[in-house]
Amino acid sequence: MIPVVMPTYSRIDVVFERGEGCFLYDTTGRRFLDFTSGIAVNALGHAHPYLVEKLTEQAHKLWHTSNLFRVAGQEKLASRLRELTFADTMFFTNSGVEAWECGVKLVRKYHYETGHPEKTRFIVAGGNFHGRTMTAIAASGQDKMVKGFGPLLDAFDRVAYDNLNELRAAITPETAAILVEPILGEGGMRPASLDYLRALRAICDEYGLLLYFDEIQSGMGRSGKLFAHEWAGITPDVMCIAKGIGGGFPLGACLATEKAAQGMVAGTHGSTFGGNPLAMAVGNAVLDVMTQPGFLDNVIAKGALLQGKLEELVARHPTVLDSVRGKGLILGVKCVTPVGDLVTALRDNGMLVVSAADNVVRILPPLIVGEAEINEAVAILDRTCAALAA
Ligand SMILES: *Cc1c(COP(=O)(O)O)cnc(C)c1O
């Protein structure tokens, strides 16, 4: 008989009961060091007291009114993100893919409104991942995602990641935007070179294209900047965010400049739940914490500490680990042995990680991770790699 929950995931047979900071406890009372953070979602760890307080406070007042009315929390969060980013305006969603797809619509509308209705196509790069709607699977194009779901939207031209020659050659009169993850997440935790990101900006300006960054995984402090593209000193025209912004509450947003968003007038887009008061209370609370002086500096410091220790592990276990990649606390270790074996062995030893493409294990601790937890993670990794090598 088919499982009552549709079996679209190959789930691990663990049920968690509660979490606290960097730790999760399962229903048998077992404790796990969580270096997955719900795939970069629990940016402030589990049950952060301030987030709990703000969510509870809002829960006692108001949950939902719909977007028929002004929502104070949206206006507050949007104003704050406008101060902190390139964006002039934004649309709130319940998930990453909705935020991403809002950006796809916005890009097409921009060119339609500015006299270029022929510009409808997107250049995407590498093992890009944007979610699981029909449009998003078309953009990723991976066999396991798309097989059997066609016909798909034909609007995406894929080139190699971090490769300008291929990208330039792919531009046609129909190209509307270049759509890139500044740090490739699912595709293998690969940061693009900063020169590449700068060149994308220049190319978009030269050809009249919009630059669209998917920072759903790389954003919200992960890289040590609020958004990873900031390292390159350039700005996109459109950006989708999600994951960390809700700290575990479903929340995403599509941010854009006024120019790029000019076609998104009343009636062009909408969502019943998007930006509801509960989500906005949490989003504002996450931002309260992340904008505290020193928060991002601490991500950079802890990232450097962890990265250094991971490099040492690679040197010590060359038959298991190959190399370290990433930035801040969005790190990956490319494995020699099958990454799935390492993920399972680490879990058996009390540490949770998730794999990415390219035989990479993702290292995504909560951004509040401390030195003690980093040392514990490194000790578990050391022990596990030694056992795998034997
Ligand atoms: C997770 C992710 C998405 C999709 O987010 P959902 O909330 O699962 O829809 C899109 N883009 C990137 C880069 C992601 O990491």
Automatic annotation (TrEMBL):
Read off the InterPro entries from this record: AcOrn/SuccOrn_fam, Aminotrans_3, Aminotrans_3_PPA_site, Class-III_PLP-dep_AT, PyrdxlP-dep_Trfase, PyrdxlP-dep_Trfase_major, PyrdxlP-dep_Trfase_small
Q: How is this protein annotated for GO cellular component?
A: cytoplasm
Report the record's Gene Ontology biological process terms: L-arginine biosynthetic process
Q: Which residues bind pyridoxal 5'-phosphate?
A: F129, D214, E215, I216, Q217, T272
Kindly list the places in or outside the cell where this protein is found, as annotated in its UniProt entry.
Cytoplasm
Per the entry, the cofactor note is: Binds 1 pyridoxal phosphate per subunit.
Looking up SUPFAM superfamilies in the UniProt record yields: PLP-dependent transferases
Listed CDD domains: OAT_like (cd00610)
Which residues are recorded as binding N(2)-acetyl-L-ornithine?
Answer: R132, S271
Keywords recorded for this protein, A-Z: Amino-acid biosynthesis, Aminotransferase, Arginine biosynthesis, Cytoplasm, Pyridoxal phosphate, Transferase
Q: N6-(pyridoxal phosphate)lysine-modified residues are where?
A: K243
Catalyzed reactions per annotation:
N(2)-acetyl-L-ornithine + 2-oxoglutarate = N-acetyl-L-glutamate 5-semialdehyde + L-glutamate
Q: Name one Pfam family in it.
A: Aminotran_3
- Per the UniProt entry, the Enzyme Commission number(s) are 2.6.1.11
The cofactor named in the record is: pyridoxal 5'-phosphate
**GO MF term set:** identical protein binding; N2-acetyl-L-ornithine:2-oxoglutarate 5-aminotransferase activity; pyridoxal phosphate binding
In the UniProt record, does the keyword Heme occur? no
UniProt record similarity statement: Belongs to the class-III pyridoxal-phosphate-dependent aminotransferase family. ArgD subfamily.
Q: PANTHER family from the xrefs?
A: AMINOTRANSFERASE CLASS III (PTHR11986), SUCCINYLORNITHINE TRANSAMINASE (PTHR11986:SF113)
Q: What else is known?
A: May also have succinyldiaminopimelate aminotransferase activity, thus carrying out the corresponding step in lysine biosynthesis.
> How does the record describe its quaternary structure?
Homodimer.
State what protein this is by name: Acetylornithine aminotransferase
